[in-house]
Structures are given as structure tokens and as C-alpha cells.
Amino acid sequence: MKAKSFIAALALLFALITGPAYAAEPMTVNINTADAATLASLNGIGESKAEAIIVYREANGPFESVEQLAEVKGIGSRTVEKNADMMAVK
Q: Which positions carry the signal peptide feature in this UniProt record (predicted)?
């Protein structure tokens, strides 16, 4: 019985050590090319705000920085801050 417990403990230890290596990398959304569905997947961005981002982008050209997203009506700097790690401009 002790051998089974030892093997189970080793298996658990191995899983804990190697688990982060297999974790998925966070998704990065390019706000200059993303479609409405992808933009809506961001925290605090629903369908209507995603459409507003696209309308703004089409009227003003590509975003030069993630922070510029706060210029879109209905999107504040707080929303930009919450999503900063998940957004990029390319």
C-alpha cells in the first residue's frame, strides 16, 4: 500500500511541476484588425462597443497605441487598463 501512495504522490508532484509549462498563453487581440466578435471577447467590451471600435477605426485609421482605444465613445481608460495585457496594435 505504501508503494501505491508513493507513486501517487510522485505523479501529483510531476503534474504540479509540469502543469504551467502546458498552460495556454493568453490571447492577444490586435485592435487594428480584430472583428467584432473578437473585440467583444475582451473584458467589458460587448457587441455594441465592439462595433463602435470598428466604426472609430474605419473613420480615423488604425490605432497607434492601446491607450488610444479610450477615445472611442463608451470605452473608458479603466476598460483599457483591464484589458491592456490582452490587446496589441500591429
A: 1-23
Superfamily of chain region 29-88? AF1531-like domain (1.10.150.280)
Structure-derived torsion over alpha carbons of residues 70, 78, 40, 84, reported in degrees to the nearest 10: 80
Whole-angstrom CA distances from 9 to 14, 23, 69, 81 are 9, 21, 49, 41
Query: Rounded to whole angstroms, how far apart are CA atoms 84 and 67?
Result: 8
Which residue type is seen at 4?
A: K
Question: Which residues, other chains included, contact 67 with Cβ-Cβ below 8 Å and sequence gap of 6+?
Answer: 77, 80
Mean pLDDT on 27-36: 95
